[in-house]
């Protein structure tokens, strides 16, 4: 074909197949079909779930039914022996109760603080975006660094909390925050609340921003004040979002190992011992992999029951 002549319609250019060729139609049909495209987009998530959730979960079941130890990791059948030993262990019972109580107290504080913080962040004021960025910092900081930060905050000799309380005349000397069962438990709760609240606040904020502006305007026209509009209109509409934030916060708090391990290592006298730390101490530091796996598996039914309760509550609120 000479220069300047136009290639006839349907002839391939630069090695590309013509528009109407079967190859081009096949490629376009694959990309336009929702089934194969959805499977392709879901493939990374499936690989992630299989690699980091499903395989470790089934390995934990296998270890919990065996006599595996660090010295001999072979899977010799042991039945339910590890579960019976765990239930007969008083430290396990203490760890389970501490996990539930710590999660409930922390969640109550997180939900209240996150809702208040989200209500503040939803308003228009100067520097709003900077304030939102600063609020997210505790969540973006690695949990190990957060735990070390609070370990310093509750230090027996150099605690800035003690300095403030001494300056205000509330205390005379230093407080052994992590050496007393009550204050150690409170310290862990404070660290958990400080870490989880930003995430919950962002989730609740997304729910608040999704409320139609017309609803607020109509409430203001009807003469509803701030408190009435908040508790009778805004919060009921965002209740499903608050429940989702509660679900995520509960899972993160209940399964957290690092905070307790860094702050108290479960002490004093197992006052802050929880299931993740006790499973770590028994399975890794103690070398009894089967016993550690059995203790860790007790997390699953508790979290499953918690998730079911939250999701049923969300469904009821949406129906009503």
Give the helix/strand layout.
Elements: H1 22-32, H2 34-64, H3 81-87, H4 90-121, H5 128-140, H6 143-153, H7 160-167, H8 181-210, H9 213-221, H10 226-237, H11 239-254, H12 258-263, H13 275-285, H14 289-297, H15 299-319
Structure description:
By secondary structure, the chain is an all-alpha fold. The protein has two domains: 18-64, no CATH class; 82-319, MetI-like (MetI-like fold, Orthogonal Bundle). Helices cover 71% and strands 0% of the residues. It contains 15 helices and no strands. The protein has helices spanning 22-32, 34-64, 81-87, 90-121, 128-140, 143-153, 160-167, 181-210, 213-221, 226-237, 239-254, 258-263, 275-285, 289-297, 299-319. It is globular, with a radius of gyration of 28 Å. Residues 9-13 have low confidence and may be disordered.
Task: Give a short synopsis of this structure.
The protein has 320 residues and is mainly alpha-helical.
